[in-house]
Amino acid sequence: MGHIIGVGIFSLPFIASRVGIWTMLFYFLILGGITILFELLYGEVILRTREKHRLPGYAKKYLGGWAKNLALFSSGLGLIIAVLAYIIVGGGFLGSILVPILGGNSTLYVYTFFVLGAFLIFFGVKSIARVESVMLVFFLIILGLIFYKGASVINPVHLFVFDSKYLFLPYGAILFSLAGFSVIPEIREYLIEKPKNLRKVIILATSLAALISLFFVFIILGITGSETTPEAIAGLKNHLSNGIVVLVLLFGVLATFTSFLTCGLTLKKILWYDFKINKHISWALACFLPIFLFILGLTDFIKIISISGGVLLAISAILMIFIYLKAKTKGDLEPAYSLNLPKILVYSLIIFFVIGAAYELIYFFL
User: What is the spatial distance between Cα 164 and Cα 275, in angstroms, rounded to a whole number?
Assistant: First the structure.
């Protein structure tokens, strides 16, 4: 949950201000079910394989070298873009809190956010697991406080808007905001003595994350309506006290920071486990490539996460499905759980992701 609830959640109220809460609910139901399904497929692949890998490693084992390279492109670039988005938004939130107190400018706090995350990524899965748990509790408490303080100014009229030209806008951002597959190998390591619980964790964490995301959309959109801003927070200043806005910003820092940690760790381990790059060099590449893109001026986070979710995640998901089909017969372990899906459903998932990726490219580049 700490990994899933990240920067993507902050794009959702703005998108909902264009299509309304009912359209968002429809997308969450469809994409939530699809996300759980392909993550369960990935979980079964991991349980069927003796060696430790990340997606590129599984792709090479079951599909060959070409698939490893494609997986590196999709999952690696996807993680780099995700970390970039976390740095942009999380650092911006941190700056909004600390600039009035300590001075400086927002860029300074983007770098502060980055340095703190890179330091923790260096220490690996155990330190990150502890940080995820603590921070998840904190931002859930903060979300409850935001609702308590803001409930009186929620206007139900704000929730029921719809503009047909934005009908497909939620696709990439919601898919990005729900996807947690990159951290599933970490969960498998954490559940080394109880592998059967992997299926429960995937279903429960994704479902709860979807409910929390919808709740967040309901609160922010209900308060700010047509004044909802792309990052969700700035629009609150006209409706809530400064103290409440600071709480929301703190929520944003916590949410983005935890996901920054897990994405950075996963990218590090792709380079370390699957490409046999030195552990410390893998850490440096995983952390410093995203900040380099920030320095180059890539800062439009809604576009970034939409492309990442709609296109790069689709490539990874399609590869994952083909890996799953091979692992069913070529795996070297008996898994703790096994899905028996009709072939027509499996291939329908592939078609779904191809169509979604094509739409995202057309929408943002044509």
Answer: 45
Measure the CA–CA gap between 138 and 148, rounded to whole angstroms: 15
Q: What one-character-per-residue DSSP string does 292-335 give?
A: HHHHHT---HHHHHHHIIIIIHHHHHHHHHHHHHHHHHH-SS--
Between CA 41 and CA 199 the distance in angstroms is 10
The model scores a pTM over 0.90: no
217 in Cβ contact with 12 (< 8 Å) = yes
Assigned domain for 225 exists: yes
Q: Is the dihedral of CA 233, 293, 280, 66 positive or negative?
A: positive
Residue 153 lies in a domain: yes
pLDDT tens, residue by residue, 44-82: 999 999 888 888 889 999 999 999 889 888 878 888 888
The verdict on residue 1 lying in a domain is no
Q: Would you say residue 83 lies in a domain? A: yes
CATH number (domain holding residue 353): 1.20.1740.10
Q: How far apart are CA 285 and CA 122, in angstroms?
A: 12
Residue matched to tokens 């954490």: 190
What residue numbers bound the domain in which 99 lies?
7-365
CA distances from 154 to 15, 162, 219, 295, 351 (A): 18, 18, 7, 38, 40
Evaluate the CA torsion angle 109, 111, 112, 113 in order and state its sign.
positive
CA distance 266 to 86: 14
User: What Å distances lie between residue 326 and 61, 64, 150, CA to CA?
Assistant: 10, 11, 51
